[in-house]
Amino acid sequence: MAPEVAAPLKKALITGITGQDGSYLTEFLLKKGYEVHGIIRRSSNFNTQRLEHVYIDPHQSSARMKLHYGDLSDASALRKWVDSICPDEVYNLGAQSHVGVSFENPDYTGDVVGTGALRLLEAVRIHIESTGRQVKYYQAGSSEMYGATPPPQDETTVFHPRSPYAVAKVAAHFYTVNYREAYGVFACNGILFNHESPRRGENFVTRKITRAIGRIKVGLQKKLYLGNLKASRDWGFAGDYVEGMWLMLQQEKPDDYVLATEDSHTVEEFLEESFGYVGLNWRDHVEIDPRYFRPSEVDNLRGSAKKAKEMLKWEPKVQFKQLVAMMVDADLEKAKREKVLVDAGFIDSHQQP
């Protein structure tokens, strides 16, 4: 009797693998038994810190995560990696994802976020046509696309973007819809409301707050400078949301889905909860800096995830207070390690933002 042949591993290709969402999605897919490939930009500094805990030397046969140099601005590289990796699923998470920075770098943001999605979709389309394989595509949308449209926002809500980043995301959204309708690509848009974690970039407001709390608590910082405290957002945990991304690509037909907690809080409420968690009064430490106000603000984002709950059976597990505690605890530990280095004279306390 011939021995059973093991089924080949499913392959996933992720752009933005080194980011917050990319690292959580990589963990999730590895646990599902996938072989995970990620496209990373070349940098003079290592930018793979969020992946260190799952990294295995590619020379070892047990390595199921592999990194490749490329960029969403480089169509030839995208085509090369799609053709050589032959992924079953492609997750486009790569972006210049900071709303404030998009006002300062609008051309670059539009190219990478909007046209970058088009380049990747075209690489997937050509690969499907030339090989006959099925490749499923996930496009990372954003609640910022709704902009000035009042909540609650769902899949049928009209987009009214208020930043170059949001405009570019709207373009990527409709490129995805067009490739689904015009070419039959299994392409899904995930419209994710704000999702945070201890791995969030330190220049995003939630992480900026929790990072400062840790440093204030151990005596490395006194003040935190912020902009609009009245902006209200639907904040969830990034680890919950990557499961939703995967579930979208496991359905029989491609579609678009909102992922959200359906609960919103202002930046001021985030300050109250996070500073209060460690026994501090945020008003003693926070100052308003007009430089952090944007030319056009988004006042209130709160999603309705009814469709995802019904069709995907997806539910957010981590609630607001748990999320805040998770982030503050992680940044307090980080600040304690930093304090040891400062006290020993290895670094200057002002080196960090």
From TrEMBL:
Alphabetic keyword roster: Lyase, NADP
Reaction(s) catalysed (UniProt annotation)? GDP-alpha-D-mannose = GDP-4-dehydro-alpha-D-rhamnose + H2O
- Annotated signal sequence is none
Q: Which top EC class is given?
A: lyase
The organism named in the record is Ceratodon purpureus (Fire moss)
The name under which this protein is listed is GDP-mannose 4,6-dehydratase
Chain coiled-coil ranges: none
What EC number(s) does the entry state? Answer: 4.2.1.47
Q: Indicate the family of this protein.
A: Belongs to the NAD(P)-dependent epimerase/dehydratase family. GDP-mannose 4,6-dehydratase subfamily.
Tell me yes or no: is NADP among this UniProt entry's keywords.
yes
